[in-house]
Amino acid sequence: MVSASVLVLSGFAWYAYHSLTNGLTTSNALGVLKNGPGHLDNAVNLLLIGLDSRKDQNGNDLPKQFVQDELHAGSSDIGYYNTNTLILMHIPANGGKVTAFSIPRDDYVQTYNGDGTRQGMHKIKEAYGYAYSAAHDKLSAQGVTGADLEHQSREYGREATLATVQNLLGVPIDHFAEVNLLGFYDIAQVLQPIQVCLKHPVNDNYSGADFPAGLNNLNAKQALAFVRQRHGLTNGDLDRTHRQQAFLSSVVHKLKTEGIFSDLGKMQDLFNVVKKDMVIDNQWNVLDFASQATNLTGGNVAFNTLPITGFATENGESVNTVDPAYLKQVVQATFGEGASQPSGGKKSSSGQKAAPATVDVYNGSGIAGAASNELKDLASAGYTAGQAANASQPQSTTTVAYGAGAQQAAQQIAGRLNTSPAAASSSVPAGHVQITLGTDFTAPAPGSNGSSSGSSSGASGSGSSGSQPSPSPTFAGNTVKMGGIPCVD
């Protein structure tokens, strides 16, 4: 986001572009999402990933004294490869208002590997680390060592994070940028002091945040404490997401108003940090993106934090419970995915027009009548009803398979049911989608919108999947609007 802002407003964009892209670290992780949901227009969805790792890009521990004194982040063993910050931004094709959602790090959801296989129910922040660990062990056994081992293992972590977020929210991810604690610190060090505003004084020994109420000018160490504090805040992690949103607004405000774009030395320092500490996808043409994303620096950006349904304890850890079906509905509606459909024809529950296909539903869930009820719901969404019958045997997970010509409909239905990505099958007739309901399937409650929440909402601690969504989105806390220095808790 910072690099895009630099390119948008600088008077030497071509120099900046070539300087930035020469030596930039890129990732192939987006390639695993090729079968995910698509856009209706040329909008761009950008996922910002903050990795809570105390290691450099090659897997080396950061100096102990630096981690403890400057980052105030404990030992290098803490944090592992958790994605403690996930912000999904939507940049409209027509240059309208940019909207962004922070995903609370402790949301308890179905997590995925990049190949679409399920990791299980975990905190969303853990998808990266589970995939990294599995890949690290496998690659190490194959003889991969050193920096190559770290780089390849992290690719699996990125793929898992992208797949998990895309499956959870049901919208495509077009680009991503990843930065770790050191990268954040380095960027803040180039830009310091950075002004932020607090509604109340804080003094937190865990993060090192010790600030009075009102405006505060922060150095790099203080900036990291500001965005990491959660202890002592009324809503804990949820309030921390607002800190992160406010910090981004303050950084862009500083870039725009304090002449940094005309300071070639400071610009070069910023580029050097981005190249050293940041990873972006290899499909990202930063200059083209900058021409579309002028509203990132124009103040026309609204940040919200996705809602939770409550709290629970899973495997001895505190988690946030969520309603995946509702999250999909909120994000798709806010991003306008499926909102600009031609007239005529029914639409699926996600707002997209139902793609042509005949749907067959088989019941392996053990819930009487589940197949026929689900088939009725799919027919009302615009798909052609096929047959409903019992599966040959029970199965644990709900699956979606498709025959020739039915891939688009299958992908829509997989998103609707929150299953693993739909798979092609030669045993499914052409033009048909075959759904086999598993024991993880939860039928929608009477009076709901008919959209089953599927596997994620059927698991323990996953939220009130059968509840009726409210007519207007409900977010966690107030909206943080960019364009100045917002004051937060």
Automatic annotation (TrEMBL):
Residues 82-256 form the Cell envelope-related transcriptional attenuator domain. Residues 443-459 have a biased composition (Low complexity). Pfam families: LytR_C (PF13399), LytR_cpsA_psr (PF03816). Residues 358-441 form the LytR/CpsA/Psr regulator C-terminal domain. Residues 438-489 are annotated as: Disordered. Transmembrane segments: none annotated. InterPro entries: LytR/CpsA/Psr_C, LytR/CpsA/Psr_CW_biosynth, LytR_CpsA_psr. Belongs to the LytR/CpsA/Psr (LCP) family. This is LCP family protein. It comes from Streptomyces humicola.
